[in-house]
Structures are given as structure tokens and as C-alpha cells.
Specification:
By secondary structure, the protein is of the alpha+beta class. The protein is 22% helix and 25% strand. It has one domain. The chain contains four helices and six strands; from the N terminus they run H-E-E-E-H-E-E-E-H-H. Strands 1-2-3-6-5-4 form a six-stranded mixed β-sheet. A hairpin with a 3-residue loop joins strand 2 and strand 3. Helix 2 packs antiparallel against helix 3. The relative contact order is 0.20.
């Protein structure tokens, strides 16, 4: 089982002539060429047993500067694939309403699962500094 399948992302057929594979910390999306993305959301809670750190170490007790801009960016990425699965809060085990189905998105540099926006909004999840700077300095 691939990391994308373990996260509940890669569960259905992918568009014809599109190839998705994972190489280390990058997602390779090939459609007429190769493009590497830095994958966000590599946390133990989202991909158990993969050796990733806990999301808890990246949670902030309070909101932080740029959070609204980061949320907007996460919501408006390019969609690569979707899953029929619902988003489940990894801390409460409850289904999350209002966030739709899981979709895999990118901005041309970074790639993420749509569930990340939920954790940023609800739990003040801080994403890697490199990503935050990418959003806030553009």
C-alpha cells in the first residue's frame, strides 16, 4: 500500500494518461512531463506507521499572523484527484462537516490533502516554514 493510499487519498482511478507516484518526500505527477512537488501533511496521525512526526508538535495554542492567507491558499489549489472518503478528525474520531471530500491539491510547488485546511483552521496547525514563506512572501 502506498503512502497516498494509507492517507485515503489514492482510492480511485486517476485520469487517463496521468501517472502519480511517490519518491521519498516528493509526489511526482506526470502528464506530458515530470513535476515534483514538496508534500505537506506528513504526520503520524495522517499516515500511521510511516515514521512521520506527530501533528501535535506543530499545533499552536493561538492563531498566528498569516493564517487566513494560508487557509485561502490551501482552499484554492489545483485539484489532482479526489476520494469518496470523508474527512475524519484524527484527534476526535468524528466526521468533519463542511469540508467536502478528500482531494489532493497543489500550487505548482507544494502538494497537500484538503484535510490540512481543517487542521489549520480548527487547531492552528503550523505548516513548514518553507511553505508559509512561499505563501506569505508572494
Amino acid at each position: 500500500m502506498t503512502p497516498l493510499q494509507r492517507c485515503g487519498i489514492l482510492t480511485s482511478n486517476i485520469e487517463v494518461n496521468t501517472k502519480i507516484q511517490v519518491r521519498g518526500a516528493h509526489l511526482i505527477h506526470e502528464k506530458g512531463g515530470e513535476k515534483m512537488f514538496n508534500i505537506l501533511g506528513k504526520y503520524e496521525e495522517l499516515a500511521p506507521g510511516m515514521g512521520f512526526p506527530s501533528m501535535k508538535s506543530s499545533l499552536s495554542k493561538t492563531s498566528y499572523p498569516g493564517k487566513a492567507q494560508i487557509i485561502q491558499h490551501l482552499k484554492t489549489g489545483n485539484v489532482h484527484m479526489a476520494s469518496a472518503g470523508r474527512i475524519i478528525d484524527v484527534f476526535t474520531g468524528q466526521a468533519v462537516d463542511g469540508y467536502g471530500h478528500k482531494v489532493f491539491m497543489d500550487d505548482g510547488v507544494f502538494s497537500w490533502c484538503s484535510s490540512l485546511v481543517y487542521y489549520v483552521e480548527k487547531y492552528n496547525l503550523r505548516l513548514p516554514t518553507e511553505f508559509e514563506q512561499h505563501i506569505l512572501n508572494d
